[in-house]
Amino acid sequence: PGLHIFAIAFALEVSVGKTNTVMALNNSNVLLPCVFSTCIGFQDLVFTWYFNSTELVADPAPLPLQIYQGKIKNKASEPTVIQHNPRVEFVGSTTKKDHNISIVLNSVEFSDAGKYTCHVKNPMERNAEHNATIFLTVVHKMVETDNTVTLIIVGVVGGLIGLLILFMLIKRVVLFIIKKTQDGKKECLVSSSGNDNTENGLAGSKAEQKAPPKA
């Protein structure tokens, strides 16, 4: 039974993607992504987006600020809105393979910076709950990435490659010159050797032509 409960508890999963940080320009619109999955299925599933809190705490502490809440009857239907902030727009779709429950926050302000939690509750899984969190930063202007270091590295690597190519060319030229020099020496040696043999032969012929001395 314990294992069965464990499997049920972790069948529902919620994800906000590979990174949980988002940066937005002041007065722009920003996408807050979220998808959920379940291997069991769902019915009357409720999803809620919270701002800066996920805990339903006791009074007199403030309740979490719900900026959007929707309900999905089944996998063949899109969600119906239960509650939403006027600046929040639902942009997902729950009838596709990835049950997308992403929202867009319009005209963001500096006060909108903080923690946004996507929470899902599935009655079909004994009211199993799961959530994922995004941290939003609002800036006055986007910081341009300084590519100086990258350009320096690219320049150094390019220079090294150029030097290597130049070295290979010089090596080939030197080897070519050495080969030509060696070939020239061989020709000289062959020519010299031929001349010596010819002279020896001629001398030998002349010696043979001399008459033997008279006794």
TrEMBL record:
<dbReference type="GO" id="GO:0044325">
    <property type="term" value="F:transmembrane transporter binding"/>
</dbReference>
<feature type="compositionally biased region" description="Polar residues">
    <location>
        <begin position="190"/>
        <end position="200"/>
    </location>
</feature>
<dbReference type="GO" id="GO:0086002">
    <property type="term" value="P:cardiac muscle cell action potential involved in contraction"/>
</dbReference>
<protein>
    <submittedName>
        <fullName>SCN4B protein</fullName>
    </submittedName>
</protein>
<dbReference type="InterPro" id="IPR003599">
    <property type="entry name" value="Ig_sub"/>
</dbReference>
<keyword id="KW-0325">Glycoprotein</keyword>
<dbReference type="GO" id="GO:0017080">
    <property type="term" value="F:sodium channel regulator activity"/>
</dbReference>
<dbReference type="Pfam" id="PF07686">
    <property type="entry name" value="V-set"/>
</dbReference>
<feature type="transmembrane region" description="Helical">
    <location>
        <begin position="149"/>
        <end position="170"/>
    </location>
</feature>
<keyword id="KW-0732">Signal</keyword>
<keyword id="KW-1133">Transmembrane helix</keyword>
<dbReference type="GO" id="GO:0001518">
    <property type="term" value="C:voltage-gated sodium channel complex"/>
</dbReference>
<feature type="region of interest" description="Disordered">
    <location>
        <begin position="187"/>
        <end position="215"/>
    </location>
</feature>
<dbReference type="InterPro" id="IPR013106">
    <property type="entry name" value="Ig_V-set"/>
</dbReference>
<dbReference type="InterPro" id="IPR007110">
    <property type="entry name" value="Ig-like_dom"/>
</dbReference>
<dbReference type="InterPro" id="IPR000920">
    <property type="entry name" value="Myelin_P0-rel"/>
</dbReference>
<dbReference type="InterPro" id="IPR013783">
    <property type="entry name" value="Ig-like_fold"/>
</dbReference>
<keyword id="KW-1015">Disulfide bond</keyword>
<keyword id="KW-0472">Membrane</keyword>
<keyword id="KW-0393">Immunoglobulin domain</keyword>
<dbReference type="InterPro" id="IPR036179">
    <property type="entry name" value="Ig-like_dom_sf"/>
</dbReference>
<feature type="domain" description="Ig-like">
    <location>
        <begin position="1"/>
        <end position="135"/>
    </location>
</feature>
<keyword id="KW-0812">Transmembrane</keyword>
<dbReference type="GO" id="GO:0060307">
    <property type="term" value="P:regulation of ventricular cardiac muscle cell membrane repolarization"/>
</dbReference>
